[in-house]
Amino acid sequence: MPATDITELSSSEQTFLDPYLPSPSAPSASGKSAKLPFVTLTYACSLDGMIALAPGVRTALSGPETKSMTHYLRLKHDAILVGAGTAVADLPSLNCRYPGAEFDEQPQPVIVDPRRRWKVEGSALGRLAEEGKGRQPWAVSLGGNSDEACKRLVVEESEGGRMDWETVLRKLKAEGIRSVMVEGGATVINALLAEPGLVDSVIVTIAPTWLGQGGLAACPAVTTVDGRRVNAARLADTTWRQFGADAVLCGRLGA
């Protein structure tokens, strides 16, 4: 999408979004702001809750108005985080093309890559960094040595061989990252929805389309209490607004 197609948001659109975005004077809603960055979870989905037609299939859902919104959100965060699957399938730029954005306002791209699937060499992120249009990306991986072309933050495996998200966020905060915009994909979204205490705000774009059965859903694991199934997660302090043909929902994820 050419940079000229990213337009400034109206003052009312900015007013709608800003209460859900990080502020230097506002503490993290999780109450852990001293050790963790402010985390905004944001993604686009279809009317049937799908974020892609299938795993690994790049699927455009956002209209031009919400694409401009995405770049406004990027302007407001220190870092953008995606999983390795999204980095490989979507070839994202993860830079900010909002009108007037300077290089020092570019967010830090972060790829969560537990098994080292993603390589900076030949990637869109690496090319944009070489062209001075974005920052050199970082990666977060499990164990091992960091000897790659990009900076890697190494975390230890938690029980079950998974990546512990609180540890990841603490690592980023220790590197000076005060706010993180999480853009997907499904594995990352679902993992963070299962740990609501780590997320401060959620901003979801809902496109007026159905992707159909077999799509890739934003859907956290089943939660049970005393053997009884309950809601996996629920938003509070919600508000809605139309951006072009899309609807945007903002809310806070209760712990």
UniProtKB/TrEMBL annotation:
User: Which pathway does it serve?
Assistant: Cofactor biosynthesis; riboflavin biosynthesis
- Residue ranges annotated for the Bacterial bifunctional deaminase-reductase C-terminal domain, each copy included: 37-249
Which EC numbers characterise this protein's activity in its record? 1.1.1.302
Q: Does the keyword Transcription apply?
A: no
Reactions catalysed, as given in the entry: 2,5-diamino-6-(1-D-ribitylamino)pyrimidin-4(3H)-one 5'-phosphate + NAD(+) = 2,5-diamino-6-(1-D-ribosylamino)pyrimidin-4(3H)-one 5'-phosphate + NADH + H(+); 2,5-diamino-6-(1-D-ribitylamino)pyrimidin-4(3H)-one 5'-phosphate + NADP(+) = 2,5-diamino-6-(1-D-ribosylamino)pyrimidin-4(3H)-one 5'-phosphate + NADPH + H(+)
Q: Which domain of life is it from?
A: Eukaryota
GO MF term set? 5-amino-6-(5-phosphoribosylamino)uracil reductase activity
Q: What class of enzyme is it?
A: oxidoreductase
Question: Looking at the keywords, is Repeat present?
Answer: no
Matching InterPro entries: DHFR-like_dom_sf, RibDG_C, Riboflavin_Biosynth_HTPR
What keywords would UniProt list here? NADP, Oxidoreductase, Riboflavin biosynthesis
Biological process (GO) annotations held by this record are: riboflavin biosynthetic process
Classification via SUPFAM superfamilies: Dihydrofolate reductase-like (SSF53597)
Entry's family note: Belongs to the HTP reductase family.
Say what the protein does. Answer: Catalyzes an early step in riboflavin biosynthesis, the NADPH-dependent reduction of the ribose side chain of 2,5-diamino-6-ribosylamino-4(3H)-pyrimidinone 5'-phosphate, yielding 2,5-diamino-6-ribitylamino-4(3H)-pyrimidinone 5'-phosphate.
What name is this protein filed under? 2,5-diamino-6-ribosylamino-4(3H)-pyrimidinone 5'-phosphate reductase
